[in-house]
Design brief:
Strand content: 5-15%
Number of strands: 3
Low-confidence stretches: 1-9, 184-189
Helix content: 55-70%
Radius of gyration: 20 Å
Largest sheet: 3 strands, antiparallel
Shape: flat
């Protein structure tokens, strides 16, 4: 297993996380057309799964009232079911992907924009009675496909993020290191 908190790994261990090869234009257009046809069915299926899960949840509320383990298991089931529905399959191609395939500068800008958004959320001061700011984020492959995971890790490290165990074929997970720092000693972005 990699030493994710080791600065040497972040500097050199992610060198192999390079950009994926540019896909042929015809393949992108074919996948985009399939995505346009597939998307309404995917959305309808997501609504059906959500409604079915909600109906089962309402029917089993009586059991959940007396069994905390059932409630925890059902929550895990709902998270799993909805998590799979709310993400697109990897073969889907969005318009921005078809349009900017091969444009390294566009992908760098997208990565920087996502990191800036997550950094702003994570470094925001905690307000009373509000949920804690997120300390972990996940950058999907769609965002960094043209620049590779190594660029994401370097750019994130410059903003105070640390690499978490990740599968660069799917996404890169990051952890806001300032979240564990005592009050007043957090990183400044």
């Amino acid at each position: 297993m990699y030493e994710y908190r080791d600065g040497q790994f972040v500097g050199s261990g992610t060198q192999a996380w390079v950009a994926w090869p540019v896909r042929p234009r015809w393949q992108l257009m074919l996948r985009f057309a399939a995505t346009v046809v597939f998307m309404p069915f995917w959305i309808a299926f997501g609504i059906v799964v959500f409604c079915a899960t909600l109906a089962i949840g309402l029917l089993t509320e009586v059991v959940a009232a007396v069994s905390s383990s059932y409630e925890k298991g059902f929550d895990r089931f709902m998270d799993s079911a909805m998590g799979r529905i709310t993400t697109l399959p990897r073969w889907c191609v969005l318009w921005s992907e078809a349009r900017y395939e091969g444009d390294t500068e566009h992908y760098r800008a997208e990565v920087d924009k996502q990191l800036a958004r997550w950094t702003a959320r994570a470094s925001a001061p905690r307000e009373p009675r509000k949920p804690r700011p997120p300390t972990e984020c996940e950058i999907p492959r769609r965002v960094y496909r043209g620049v590779g995971g190594h660029y994401v890790v370097r750019a994130a490290a410059a903003q105070g993020w640390e690499l978490r165990p990740s599968e660069p074929e799917k996404s890169i997970r990051l952890w806001w290191s300032a979240a564990s720092a005592p009050e007043g000693t957090a990183h400044s972005a």
